[in-house]
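Structure (tokenized):
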């Protein structure tokens, strides 16, 4: 984690301990790379972006809520995703 995005502004993490490397399964990395490359946009920096290639301006909570509602699943907080993955 080398940057954070809050309310549309990207900045360095608040503390030095916040800058870190998080291990990732190769299948997850490959899926994210395919997702990033599937857009016809020039942006190489962001995986999740608008149709114009710009970073999303909505919060992950807003995006999560919309995705859950569209899927007609029971609404749950997005932080529960970490438990599902584990």
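Design, position by position:
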């Amino acid at each position: 984690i080398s940057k954070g995005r809050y309310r549309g502004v990207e900045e360095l993490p608040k503390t030095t301990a916040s800058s870190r490397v998080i291990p990732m399964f190769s299948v997850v990395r490959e899926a994210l790379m395919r997702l990033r490359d599937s857009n016809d946009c020039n942006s190489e920096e962001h995986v999740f972006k608008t149709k114009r290639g710009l970073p999303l301006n909505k919060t992950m909570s807003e995006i999560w809520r919309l995705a859950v509602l569209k899927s007609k699943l029971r609404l749950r907080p997005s932080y529960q995703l970490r438990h599902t993955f584990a």
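Reviewer-requested clarification: Residues 26-38 form the longest helix (13 residues). The two ends are 19 Å apart (CA to CA).
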